[in-house]
Amino acid sequence: MKTFYLLCFCLLANISLLHSARIVSGPIPYHFTHQMLSFGFLLEHTDSLRVDLIDPLENTRQSKIIKTADFPTYKNHTPVKFIFEGLKANYTYKIEVRLNAKKVRQLKSELKTAPLPGNKDFSFMLGSCAYTPPKTLKWMHPGIEERIYPNMIEKETDFMLWMGDYLYYFKKHFKSFDGMMRRHVFKRKNEKLNKFLMSRPQYAAWDDHDYGPNNSDMHFPQKDAALEMWKFYWNNPAYGLDSVPGCFFDFSYQDCDFFMLDNRFYRTEESDTGAMLGEGQMNWLMQKLKNSQATFKFIMAGSQVFNEITKEECFCKYTQEREQLLDFINKEKISGIIWLSGDRHHSSLFKVEDIAAYSYYEYTCSAITTFRSKLKRSNEYINPVRVEGTLVQQQNFGIINISGPADDRKCLIETFDNRGKLIWDYSISANELK
Asked: For position 105, what pLDDT does the model report?
């Protein structure tokens, strides 16, 4: 009889452990400035989370408590976010966490604010297309290896730009809010990816596979649910405008401005008179560019912009809307623009001349883990605007380094393979882009 009671006690203890509160992922740092830090967690079986942001030198702290009942939950998994303001510039803070009022002792985490605005040297990482197959199907895809994430962690950069196709909904996911949540939870449970997300601040814009079906546009019926889900899992500095919802936003770092576009929420069918950005977002972008005094202005769209010969999605197929933007840039004499894109499962650097006062560069960076795209049998294999030697048809990621004195800033673009080995680099002077 004693043995029976002992077995029952052990069983109950194990069940209790299975349902104990825990952190599934995080803290993941998001948008940050010289005075503010934001970060998030994915929690399991948690009613409340308290975070203390500690100044290690002055031994002072700010505390915030969040109730998970205020956030969406899927099978006891809840994404939560924190923002702390009024902080010191270029300063490292420690984080102390309590789940359901119980201190998490194994969590040792530090977050650092940005330096004061200026023209200091800095770097950022970028990439797109990070498909994670179900565990039962991994044997079918030997080329999709996640060894790339530890090698990305080893490269020190100030932040990371996700340029679309981070998530990859399946049909069973994008039909409902719960289905979307299920996919996000699955993604954040990926241990190697989660370690990378925790390694530096993350900014994310979406493409079709983060939004809905392949090549989806404004007619996707679950578009509002997809946007709400994106807000729960990323803490970007903004999500469109009050009158123009979407996942587009902008931010600044040192002497550079970043414009992350939404190429899905307002996208129509491809045509000369159609739209990829829509009138509201286009007006926002043009006004932001006109007001920008940045040395380099990075414009990111999930779809390519200048690949005229592709049969795939491209901004160039929305002739009037793209010409409206390019004409505005020429008329207003906006300097320093570099275009960024993802989507294509290969990387290239394009240099486009004769359509502006200076050459336009577009860096397509893809894919991090997704299927490799081979172009040898494609009309794109020989592309007149591709910079020679920059086609990469294997898993890869990019790093952009900004350096030099104020009157001679340089943008060095580097592309690395999934082992972290440099494949090619290319330098662009800000003085070229005037």
From this structure: 79
The dihedrals phi and psi of 122, each to the nearest 5 degrees, come to -160, 175
Nearest to 146 by CA among 157, 155, 136, 135: 135
Q: CB of 257 within 8 A of CB of 292?
A: yes
Q: What values do phi and psi take at 9, rounded to 5? A: -60, -45
**CB 258 within 8 Å of CB 300:** yes
**What gap in Å lies between CA 284 and CA 387, rounded to an integer?**
31
State how far the Cα of 144 lies from the Cα of 372, in Å rounded to an integer: 9
219-238 exposure pattern, b = at least 16 Cβ within 10 A, e = fewer: ebebbebbbebbebbbbbbe
Mean pLDDT of the chain: 93
User: How many Å separate Cα 287 from the centre of its chain?
Assistant: 24
The set of residues, in sequence order, having a beta carbon less than 8 Å from that of 309 and lying 6+ positions away, is 379, 380, 383
Sequence-distant (6+) residues with CB within 8 A of 308 are 314, 316, 385
> Measured between alpha carbons, how far is 197 from 178 in angstroms, rounded to an integer?
23
Question: Which residue stretches of the chain have pLDDT < 70?
Answer: 1-19, 137-144
